[in-house]
């Protein structure tokens, strides 16, 4: 029987999103990762490329889960970062196979992280190091990680559909 615990639910949510990334990247040519549906919008400014959306979904997951680890006292604040730091969408990420491998590495990290937690770990909290009036909690950052990832995967799914439409019109 499948576990229905909070941590098992988080694992399933993250696994579902990695599967969504696999579908996004399936049979996708590398040039599609650099494609944007538009350069600038009067509402909220520039568009992100398809590849940037996927890379950011992965990077922000690491960042938010590492921030949860910091709250639990497992990491120093200077270790709270995405998996590729400022190279979040560096040239290596212009390759669908690389992004897929990166998503699978993230899935392994998420599993290891969640497997290391106890229900009490979810209650960890600390004041933000630069904004002490903001209290950060581990549970919130874990939930925020999959919410943020889900949002960017949704953007990426729509962007991939738009890319497919324009590619079909061009041929």
UniProtKB/TrEMBL annotation:
The record's section on InterPro entries has: DinB-like, DinB/YfiT-like
- Ranges where the DinB-like domain occurs: 16-155
One Pfam family from the UniProt entry? DinB_2
Say which domain of life the source belongs to: Bacteria
Q: What is this protein called?
A: DinB family protein
Organism of derivation:
Caldilinea aerophila
Kindly list the organism's lineage.
Answer: Bacteria, Bacillati, Chloroflexota, Caldilineae, Caldilineales
């Amino acid at each position: 029987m499948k576990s229905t615990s909070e941590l098992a639910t988080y694992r399933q949510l993250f696994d579902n999103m990695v599967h969504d990334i696999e579908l996004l990247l399936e049979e996708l040519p590398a040039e599609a990762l650099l494609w944007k549906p538009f350069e600038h919008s009067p509402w909220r400014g520039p568009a992100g490329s398809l590849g940037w959306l996927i890379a950011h979904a992965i990077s922000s997951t690491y960042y938010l889960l590492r921030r949860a680890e910091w709250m639990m006292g497992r990491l120093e604040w200077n270790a709270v970062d995405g998996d590729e730091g400022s190279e979040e969408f560096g040239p290596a990420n212009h390759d669908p196979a690389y992004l897929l491998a990166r998503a699978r590495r993230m899935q392994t990290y998420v599993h290891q992280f969640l497997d290391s937690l106890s229900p009490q770990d979810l209650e960890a909290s600390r004041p933000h190091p630069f904004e002490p009036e903001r209290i950060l909690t581990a549970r919130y950052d874990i939930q925020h990680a999959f919410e943020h990832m889900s949002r960017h995967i949704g953007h990426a799914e729509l962007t991939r559909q738009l890319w497919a439409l324009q590619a079909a019109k061009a041929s």
